[in-house]
Amino acid sequence: MANYTAADIKALREQTGAGMLDVKKALDEADGDRAKAVEILRVKGLKGVTKREGRSASNGLVAARAGDGVGTLVEVNCETDFVAKGEKFIALADQVLAHAVASKAADAESLLASTLADGKTVKELLDDANATIGEKIEVRRVARLEGEKVVSYLHKTSPDLPAQIGVLVALEGGDEQVARDVAMHVAAFSPSVLTREEVPAETVENERRVAEATAREEGKPEAALARIVEGRVGGYFKENVLLEQPFAKEPKKTVAKVLEEAGATATGFARFRVGQ
Fold this sequence. Notes:
about 45% helix, UBA-like_sf, Transl_elong_Ts_CS, about 20% strand, three-stranded antiparallel sheet, translation elongation factor activity, alpha+beta, Elongation factor Ts
């Protein structure tokens, strides 16, 4: 019988993030030698990387850092919430975020291709993690925001998991409190654009067509169609445009009005929710 204990199994699981059965098999093969067991897990894991390519990585976390007028937001994904809340995965995400900040990466492709201090690319770092943890690990999205003032906000949707929603907001003027309030609003109300001018023209036209077809189906009078269509398109803007949304803390005011009263102007934002 291999010379290892339950404590060895627990320690190796925490070190590698691998499943209990895989850990026990590796310790058996290594005759209880933890260092050798880690190598066995890594070798077997790397062989399985290709097999995991088609698997879904819909769990994970978002991580953010902001300061000195720059903010960075990353989404790092895995397959299960068990791995997502593990120390090894969280440490990996912190390492990825730190490198994204240092390398000024603005998208996932450039971050994955960039080189760490030890000569590995971020992609190779993730492949190694994929091997030892035994799940598909990937960086899905990266955002970098610059402005006079940039704040970040992270929100946990479950107390047992790391942050699942992350937000960056860039402002000119105002103070830290209004910036944070707007970031929390973005987390809760998930706007898709800052201003209505950013909504693609084809999207607006499609909303008009749907609104008109719906009004006709409802039997609305012809004379009222134009007004009804404009009202429903306006409703689309209120739902999707940050500056036109009713502010979370003061619903009778729009976000634009709250910012105006605070002497601030929003210049950009980014919002990630894990798996969406």
